[in-house]
Amino acid sequence: MIPLGCTTFPSDSAQCSECSDELSEVACFEDSIREMKLKQRQNHEKLATGKSISLSLNCTYYLMPSSWLTKWRNYINSSGKNISTSVEPEVLDPVIDALKCEWHSRLLERPPDLVNKRGGLVQKSSTTDALTIITENDWNSFCEEWGGNKEKGIMATIESSDVAENNLGGSQEDVFISKDNPSSQDEVNNDPEIRQPLIRISPEICEDCIGERKSRELAKKLNYFNEDISVSLVRGKEAPRSILEASSATPETDRRASKRSRKTSYGTSVNLKVSGSTSLYQLKMMIWESLGVVKENQILHKGSMIIDQESATLADLNIFPGDKLWVQDSEIHEHRDIADEITDQKASSKHPEKGFQGTLLTTTTSSQVA
């Protein structure tokens, strides 16, 4: 029995030539894509698998955007169900142009660090590097495969410190010193020529534009509202190493923090809601209320640095969302109730000097006490 609504065809029906041609075209296209991906995996074997490239002194290399390489790697390694979700990387020429500033045509990113590992020189592994070092052959192949201009490439030559010093000729703008800090004995190479490798870049790094960009990024990060920071009360003369490292580390702004104080092996820790415009005085009042340390006795730290200047804002002091501060109690002044401080502040704000009446200096500002 034939279900209702279904079309039937005689057994000797001819195949639709138009549909057959369309299906053949799709199949041919998919075959060509698979062939192209296979060829690129073969042409760039180490890059396709994410392996480190062994580097040599005085050889020519090129710098590529790490984000573009990641997209390319995902695209050429996709297969089966993943093909539909893989995104084809952009044409290479405008991507390389975007790495250079418009005003000076110089590089807007710093090259990656190098490390001596098991007697060889490689790029230091990092998830934050904007650029990746590739071979000259890889660069030439990418230009042919993805519409790049070979002459526009960002060239990098690795030199020993002695050679670089002799070739500087008074200009240091195009030489980047690698921060090579081997962490284990097998990473140390006894060859003095590559113990401190230098990378010579062409075009040069644009320090002016990088500085301006960092200033804009810093201002944006410091313009925050109602975000969490952590303050730990440390008993004793010195903070534990774990506190110093956490206080100096880059904050994780996306983590959700509890407002409750927590007992730790070194004291008590509390999370406070603050803004970039919060003054240090207001923060100390919050700490007073939460941890019970009189404002005058608080020795507040970020890492190993002491934070003072009560009139300064947290933005002025470069305190970011997610920062971990620590405080010590000097115990110099006697403990008193925080209500006394608030009452004194209100009383002083009610009797401003006559010369300031009618100005913003007579405006009453309330403390942000959590």
Automatic annotation (TrEMBL):
Residues 359-370 have a biased composition (Low complexity). It comes from the Eukaryota. SUPFAM superfamilies: Ubiquitin-like. One of its GO terms (biological process) is protein deubiquitination. Residues 35-158 form the DUSP domain. GO terms for molecular function: cysteine-type deubiquitinase activity; cysteine-type endopeptidase activity. InterPro entries: DUSP-like_sf (IPR035927), Pept_C19_DUSP (IPR006615), Ubiquitin-like_domsf (IPR029071), Ubl_USP48 (IPR044743). Residues 244-267, 343-370 are annotated as: Disordered. Belongs to the peptidase C19 family. This is DUSP domain-containing protein. It comes from Salix viminalis (Common osier).
